[in-house]
Recover the amino acids of this structure.
């Protein structure tokens, strides 16, 4: 029983990170119908930059802030330089552009940083906390708390603020949003910036637990994407549920079946969903109009 | 036995009954037109008949055989062909190749023969090309054969779709607003083409807004409004029917006609 | 005399194959071009799937991996001679493609991309984890084909690198010929039709699901044979051959030159294979440059290099 609890706890922790990555996908997809395969690189940038800056002497909170800022700037550049110029291009071209961006960013990180694993100190120490026979580290609580804060904050943002509703309107019907005076270009830039910030924050939160290196981006992107699809592409609550689900499936697979193939668990789930529930758990059913 | 029998077909999308219990028949050699105001469910009806949508209820019979919700490619093998209101040509193929694809069923391609460019494969391509060129001449696109299909004018594209559908040697041809969006000259060309096609013995089920054409060539008209059939009959009867007039022009006009 | 595009392409490839060695500064270039030809073979298969039929596959290196490891393991574990091992790999890939193709090809766009990506990753995972069979992440040696000795027996003495240059070049030529035949054949038209409009193709009698599957299986066989040749050429394989990065490189090669054409795929292979070789002393920049190229080409030349250049130079596409 304690064993199951252990797996569930670690599953929920890593699932929270996948949920944040999935949320990043969702935001950009809603704003531009683009699936940003470089989403995982924001997490890497957040973690790596914080690690290096803090190793250089900066206090962690400052390093993290600068890391998130760096990610935001990179996200905005990605939108302006790579995605916007390719508006209206066929799906395959967009896939290659964002995958190219992902490879470019991790390739750059390889040079700017190095190929090693890195971490920095946990926010409130490493003393394990016991819960019902299982243990978690305090940083896990930071991860879960941080994820909940982000999702709650975004919920308020979308429902209570004018800017948030502008974003939703653009997601719903771009042309109509333009016609009522919403600056959809700004909404796109904003969505990229927000996604990058969320991704970088996820990186900052989880690196003390899992370490980071220049090439963690791809795996995170794929699992986050799997979570977003599971929940229904374009649905923020779906991103939360989907990401957590992927994390749990992965942890349970690692624990009970095989830790070698835990990464495959996410894919097997996603393939199952794609075949039986193509619109995901919370997505809308699509009908092809001829 | 009718060529096409539609019985009590209905379908809904998220609470809206797009088509609600429509029944009619098309006899061999007839031209049947389906008319009605926008949103009446005409294209949806076509999509059900041609296997693109699965009806919630009702049935479709082609030449006496149940074909309800049959896959489109199998319907094509039974002699059903169609054009599309919003054009579904193959833009990256040439005009000639577009029509050549219509001969797919007669070609019965063999992957092995095609990879190795065996004589049988090359013969099929030669024959298909010859037939396609004849069809392009028939619709007046003979000169455009080598052009990329995406470069044709709108009217040209409409005629291209008809040529492509004809290449499949259909018994029943469904034409979904073949003259929609065309100017007066283009519409005339398409009208003449439809009459010519019908003259060759192909039965036609037509959705059209051009009333002149509909009244002139139809053996039989079915009128839809908001998913239901509100009238059916010969052109003369239908044009005088108060319900039809009301659907198009408003209820006052309908009352006037009934009076 | 007007040359059809098919004959022009074949002639061009033949010319390159025959004439390139005349300008090689050293025998190292035989190796580079052999690698180009082997990659181009897999890319030609992708051109059929992606360019003709319009189905994206981000996991095609998985089939390359199956072919490569078949060449490595079948002689040892099944006692097959190297040539039969290559055939075995191709058949295995065809079978796998047939089985997973049906469900996967019902998907479209991003979902299809992710599903194929998942397949590729699963294959490389198995290759990496099942060390008892595959030698794990460190890879495994590949028994030689024995071509060199066989040809010596016929009185032909060739260096190994030259041998592989001609072998892979001839196989590529054959593969290109098959693909070009397909392009303008009845099956090819069906594939290209369903690429542009599945709905219309269906109403014309094309069994879209079956044709997509055919394209998938054929392209898997191309990839598998490419993998087998790669393994035999290098004498060694590692799980990276089936990895995500390799899949992306293959797709980029296919799209770089213009996804719809065999010759475009060839030039994409040239560019992306030669570049890392030319920049060996910039090995660290390999990923950065690959990513940059991918982005720049897709942003500025969405149709790919060959069609864009054609349009600019001649004002048309063929």
């Amino acid at each position: 029983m304690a064993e199951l609890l252990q797996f569930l706890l670690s599953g929920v922790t890593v699932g929270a990170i996948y949920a944040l990555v999935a949320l990043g996908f969702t935001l950009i997809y809603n704003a531009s119908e683009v699936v940003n395969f470089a989403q995982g690189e924001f997490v890497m940038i957040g973690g790596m930059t914080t690690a290096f800056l803090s190793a250089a002497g900066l206090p962690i909170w400052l390093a993290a802030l600068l890391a998130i800022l760096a990610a935001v700037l990179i996200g905005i550049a990605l939108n302006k330089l790579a995605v916007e110029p390719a508006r209206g291009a066929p799906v395959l071209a967009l896939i290659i552009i964002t995958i190219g961006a992902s490879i470019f960013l991790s390739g750059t990180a390889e040079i700017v940083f190095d190929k090693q694993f890195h971490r920095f100190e946990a926010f409130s120490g490493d003393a394990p906390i016991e819960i019902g026979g299982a243990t978690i580290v305090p940083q896990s609580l930071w991860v879960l708390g941080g994820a909940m804060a982000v999702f709650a904050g975004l919920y308020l943002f979308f429902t209570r603020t004018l800017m948030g509703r502008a974003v939703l309107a653009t997601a719903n019907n771009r042309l109509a949003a333009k016609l009522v005076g919403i600056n959809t270009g700004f909404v796109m830039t904003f969505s990229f910036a927000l996604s990058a910030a969320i991704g970088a924050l996820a990186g900052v939160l989880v690196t003390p637990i899992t370490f980071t290196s220049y090439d963690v981006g791809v795996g995170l992107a794929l699992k986050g994407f799997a979570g977003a699809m599971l929940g229904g592409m374009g649905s923020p609550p779906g991103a939360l549920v989907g990401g957590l689900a992927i994390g749990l499936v992965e942890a349970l697979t690692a624990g009970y079946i095989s830790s070698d193939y835990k990464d495959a668990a996410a894919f097997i789930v996603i393939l199952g969903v794609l075949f039986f529930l193509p619109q995901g758990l919370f997505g809308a059913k699509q009908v092809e109009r001829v | 036995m009718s060529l096409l029998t539609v019985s009590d077909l209905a379908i809904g999308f998220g609470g809206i009954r797009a088509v609600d219990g429509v029944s009619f028949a098309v006899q061999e050699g007839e031209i049947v037109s389906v008319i009605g105001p926008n949103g009446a469910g005409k294209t949806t009806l076509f999509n059900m008949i041609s296997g693109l949508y699965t009806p919630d209820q009702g049935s479709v019979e082609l030449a006496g055989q149940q074909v309800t919700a049959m896959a489109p490619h199998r319907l094509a093998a039974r002699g059903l062909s169609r054009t599309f209101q919003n054009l579904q040509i193959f833009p990256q193929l040439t005009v000639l190749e577009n029509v050549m694809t219509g001969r797919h069923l007669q070609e019965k391609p063999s992957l092995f023969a095609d990879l190795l460019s065996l004589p049988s494969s090359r013969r099929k391509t030669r024959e298909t090309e010859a037939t396609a060129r004849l069809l392009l001449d028939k619709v007046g696109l003979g000169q455009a054969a080598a052009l990329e299909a995406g470069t044709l004018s709108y009217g040209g594209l409409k005629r291209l779709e008809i040529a492509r559908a004809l290449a499949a040697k259909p018994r029943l041809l469904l034409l979904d607003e073949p003259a929609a969006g065309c100017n007066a000259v283009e519409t005339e060309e398409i009208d003449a083409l439809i009459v010519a096609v019908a003259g060759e013995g192909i039965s036609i089920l037509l959705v059209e807004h051009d009333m002149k054409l509909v009244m002139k060539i139809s053996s039989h008209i079915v009128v839809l409004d908001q998913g239901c059939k509100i009238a059916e009959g010969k052109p003369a009867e239908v044009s005088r029917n108060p319900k039809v007039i009301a659907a198009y022009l408003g209820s006052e006009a309908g009352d006037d006609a009934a009076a | 005399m007007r040359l059809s595009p098919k004959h022009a392409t074949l002639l061009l490839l033949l010319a390159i194959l025959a004439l390139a060695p005349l300008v090689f500064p050293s025998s190292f270039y035989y190796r580079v071009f052999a690698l180009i030809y082997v990659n181009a073979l897999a890319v030609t298969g992708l051109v059929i799937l992606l360019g003709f039929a319009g189905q994206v596959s981000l996991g095609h290196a998985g089939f390359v991996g199956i072919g490569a490891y078949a060449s490595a393991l079948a002689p040892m574990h099944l006692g097959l001679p190297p040539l039969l091992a290559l055939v075995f790999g191709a058949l295995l890939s065809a079978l796998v493609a047939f089985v997973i193709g049906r469900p996967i090809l019902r998907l479209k766009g991003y979902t299809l991309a992710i599903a194929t990506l998942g397949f590729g990753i699963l294959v490389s995972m198995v290759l990496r984890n099942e060390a008892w069979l595959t030698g794990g992440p460190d890879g495994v040696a590949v028994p030689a084909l024995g071509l060199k000795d066989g040809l010596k027996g016929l009185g032909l003495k060739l260096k190994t690198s030259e041998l592989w240059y001609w072998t892979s070049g001839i196989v590529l030529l054959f593969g290109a010929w098959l693909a070009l035949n397909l392009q303008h054949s009845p099956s090819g038209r069906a594939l290209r039709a369903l690429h542009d409009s599945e709905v219309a193709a269906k109403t014309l009698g094309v069994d879209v699901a079956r044709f997509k599957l055919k394209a998938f299986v054929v392209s898997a066989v191309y990839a598998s044979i490419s993998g087998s040749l790669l393994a035999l050429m290098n004498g060694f394989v590692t799980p990276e051959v089936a990895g995500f990065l390799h899949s992306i490189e293959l797709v980029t090669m296919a799209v770089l030159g213009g996804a719809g054409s065999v010759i475009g795929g060839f030039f994409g292979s040239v560019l992306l294979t030669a570049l890392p070789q030319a920049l060996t002393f910039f090995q660290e920049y390999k990923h950065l440059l690959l990513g940059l190229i991918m982005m720049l080409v897709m942003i500025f030349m969405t149709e790919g290099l060959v069609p864009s250049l054609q349009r600019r130079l001649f004002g048309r596409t063929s």
